[in-house]
Amino acid sequence: MSTAAATRAAAARTPRRRRRGGGGERVAPYVFLAPFIFLFLVFLVLPIIVALYTSFFQTQRSGLGFGGGDGQKFVWFDNYALAFSNPGFIESFGRVLLFGAVQVPVMLAFSLVLALLFDSAVVRWKRFFQLSVFLPYAVPSVVAALIWGFLYQPRVSPIVEGLTSIGVPVNFLAPGTVLWSIANVAVWSVVGVNMIILFSSLQTVPREMYEAARIDGAGELRMALQIKLPMILPALILTMLFSVIGTLQLFNEPMTMRSVTSNISGDYTPNMAVFSATTLGGDINLGSAMAIVIGLVTFVLSVIVSVLSNRKRGSAK
Amino acid sequence: MALTSKRSGALSALALTTVSALLLTGCASGGDAPSAEAGPVTLEFWGWAPGLETAVELWNEENPNTQIEFFRMTGDDGAKIPAAIDAGTAPDVVQMSVHSIPGHIINNRLTDISEYTEGLEEQFTASSWKGVSYNDGVYAIPQDSGPTGLMYRKDLFEQHGVEVPTTWDEYLDAARALKEADPELHIAQFSPNETGLWLETVWQNEGTWYGIDGDAWTVGIDNEASQEVAEVWQTLLDEDLVKVVDMWTPEYWAEVNAGTIATINYAAWFPGLLEESAGDLAGKWAVAPSPRYDGLDTAGETGGSVDVIPEGTEHVEQAVEFTTWLNSSPEALEILITEGGLFPSALTGLESESLLQPEEYFGGQVINEVFAGEATKVPDTWVEGPSFDLAQDQLKDAFAQVANGKLTFAEALTQVQESTVQDLKDMGLNVK
Fold first, then answer.
1. Binary contact (A42, B18; C-beta < 8 A)
2. Is A112 left (phi over 0), alpha (psi -120 to 50) or beta?
3. Which residues of B fall within a CB distance of 8 Å from A254?
4. Nearest CA to CA, how far is A258 from chain B (Å)?
5. Among B381, B412, B97, B388, which residue's Cα sits nearest to residue B211?
6. Rounded-to-integer distance, Cα A272 and Cα A279, Å
7. CB–CB of B428 and A61 under 8 A?
8. How far is CA B418 from CA A66, B151, B405, B415, in A?
9. Are A186 and A245 in contact (CB under 8 A)?
10. Rounded to an integer, what distance in angstroms lies between the CA atom of residue B27 and that of residue B42?
């Protein structure tokens, strides 16, 4: 009786212990993830919730606004209506989309060509050149914009003075050209890092494929186009996605270059418009609504880019 | 079941840590415990003017019961202030631009100190006191100001035989004469990014961007005084008498150094910068009173800085006592003028011997005699308004279009007038 009970108890205990052990394994990853989850919640989810919350309120004032009496009033989507009725804010989206439509392909083409060149056997001193291309990425964007701003300015820029002296009058800071001058800074800054991503992806392509291709008589160009490019397509799409997001977040370069030219308005890019509404206008509610709009547009664009690229990848197979 | 409760336990633990972390930060920054005793109090003071350290040291020696802890603001520190006041963690005294006062008042960020400032009015220039008082309230103590004077290239005027203009009409004639003598030479620069150059002249012409009418704000960005200023500028621009170049840029200083800009009609604090950035031109500059408008003997002003007592400060009386001493006592002004190169708002400061010293850079001229004389002639018509920063930025953008020939000055003013009225309405304020 006692032995039977003991056996039964032991039998019952074993699976229970096993289950408990399994539970422990399930907890471990969450313990390791906890710091991330904590930071994710505090610095990403919470701000979004707070922004969403504030975007539905407006500060109530009366008369001159002196002497207080102000409170927050729930106004539904009034701030969003205000954001959309602000022509500067709407135009800023058009501007960055135009910017992205030009800057992203140009920058990716540069990165891709460089990555393919570094991967091929024809380039010597690879490390040196790779570092040279990558180095601008180590320069903070504000500093980069300052340096380029200097190079763009008449009277102080050797480039402008040089071109003018040989009869090519240029104005890098004119209303029509300043956007592309900013694009140039952006390209200069990020070509290197995208090149590295694409290059690392190229390194993972099995070398046997090249051998096989060579035996079949393929040249470097044909290999690049028909083997390397399809193999690194996922990395290319990743860099494209990052670039599209980066375009919509454009802030540092135009904000910095604003100190050398008045042809960059205070609401030149969507993020600058938010900055202007909150710091200059002191309207945190409107700024929150604008920020939510930017977030949504970025999200939608990212989805479009990934859906389109998935379809393309599918058809490529 | 067991698993669910464990998971929710972990989640609530996480939530708890989040909350306690937030609480902790809240506590740490809001930690000043109120002391009811009349013992020595310590006030925190944030400012940027050079020389404030020395002045604070002197005060601390003489006033053991009110000790000041000074923190030097650099760069973006000013941007932290509104959030700090809202969170109740702001310093007790803060230096800020006079233009930003109303914006903070309507957000309940500043203490009305009028009960401690009786009779103080007479100690400051009329225009600077106007900038800190609204209706019956006083919201700051003026610190420095920027009365306008005409800095001009004495050598170039002499070389081309052109008289230094005393009215704006003469200014236009002088501009044409200089241009004729040397096509490269412009009488001034037009800088879309620096509204101070514009604002000072509107102020001189007894204009103002804002006004108060009963319990409503008025906006005067395109009023008559402004449009008169616009006319002069439009003529200068149309006849190519001004060099279009953004101020403060390396390009701007290159133009100044190259001698293509003959006059700079700007604030009393500008000569120091001029000396710093155009050292080679020593002895070639001189200062005269700004050209006048018909029938007016008034001077311009760009506005200066003030010291405010943020809402939530406990020792308001002591804070006002200190700021009053700092900005109106001869010994404090002496320090701020000699060490900080500050142009005081207090009348005693304008008579200070250390202010009225000959300047080597200006060929030994006592330039501050001119500026001090101008300071007392600044009309007290200018009223600061709650959306100043925004209006200023919109004006910059509109002026950029003027520079590109897409708008005229008059149109730019009308455009910014409209957007400023709308901005005030969006803030929920009464606008007439």
1. yes
2. alpha
3. none
4. 9
5. B381
6. 10
7. yes
8. 23, 34, 20, 5
9. no
10. 19
Tokens of B31: 């930690």
Helix (H) or strand (E) holding B138: strand B137-138
Average pLDDT over residues B117-141: 92
Q: Which residue of B has its CA nearest to A79?
A: B426
Of B327, B314, B324, nearest in space to B92 by CA: B314
Query: Which residues lie below 8 Å from residue B193, measured CB to CB, with a gap of 6+?
Result: A261, A262, B246, B247, B248, B396, B399, B400
**% of chain B residues with pLDDT over 70:** 91
Distance CA B138, CA B119 (A): 12
B338: enclosing H helix or E strand: helix B330-340
Q: B390 contacts in A (CB within 8 Å)? A: 276, 280-281
Letter string b/e over residues B122-151, b meaning 16 or more CB atoms within 10 A of that residue's CB: ebbbbbbbbbbbbeebbbbbbbbbbbbbbb
With contacts defined as CB-CB under 8 Å, which chain A residues touch B246? 260-262
**Rounded distance between C-alpha atoms, residue A133 and residue B387, angstroms:** 45
- A60, A156, A262 ranked by CB distance to B403: nearest: A262
Judge whether A312 and B137 are in contact, CB under 8 Å.
Answer: no
Å between A113 CA and nearest CA of chain B: 36
Chain A residues touching residue B189 (CB < 8 angstroms): none
* Per-residue CA distances from A27 to A35, A178, B83 (Å): 14, 54, 40
- Average pLDDT of the residues in B5-18: 41
Q: How far is CA B251 from CA A160, B195, B385, B405, in A?
A: 12, 18, 32, 21
Q: Does residue B73 contact residue B93 with C-beta atoms inside 8 Å?
A: no
Q: Which residue has the higher pLDDT, B204 or A16?
A: B204
Among candidate residues B312, B142, B191, B169, the one with its CA nearest the CA of residue B235? B169
Q: Across the interface, which of A59, A65, A265 has its CB nearest the CB of B397?
A: A265
- Measure CB to CB from residue B400 to each of A38, A263, A282 and give the nearest one: A263
In chain B, whose CA is at the least distance from the CA of A174?
A: B404
Contact between A66 and B216 using a beta-carbon 8 Å cutoff: no
Contact (CB, 8 A) for B306 and B143: yes
pTM (predicted TM-score): 0.84
Distance from CA of B212 to the nearest CA of A (A): 8
Instruction: For chain A, list residues whose CB is within 8 angstroms of any CB belonging to chain B.
Output: 23, 26-27, 30, 34, 37-38, 41-42, 58-66, 68, 70, 82, 150, 153-156, 174-175, 259-263, 265-266, 276, 279-283, 286
pLDDT given at position B183: 95
Partners of B149 in the β-ladder: B266, B289
Chain B contact set for A150 (CB, 8 A) = 250
Strands B93-97 vs B41-47: parallel, antiparallel or unpaired: parallel
Q: B373 CA to chain A: closest CA distance, Å?
A: 33
Nearest residue of chain B to residue A87 (CA atoms):
B419
Q: Is the pLDDT of residue B392 over 80?
A: yes
Mean pLDDT of chain B: 89
Cross-chain Cβ contact A64/B428 below 8 Å: no
Contact between B430 and A62 under an 8 Å Cβ cutoff? The reply is yes
- Residue numbers of chain A with a pLDDT score lower than 70: 1-25, 68-70, 312-317
B126 token code pair: 């009329």
For A120-232, where are the alpha helices, taking DSSP H only? 126-138, 141-152, 158-165, 178-203, 207-215, 220-223, 229-231
Tokens representing residue A119 in the block: 């991967």
Beta partners for residue B278, in sequence order: none
* ipTM given for this complex: 0.81
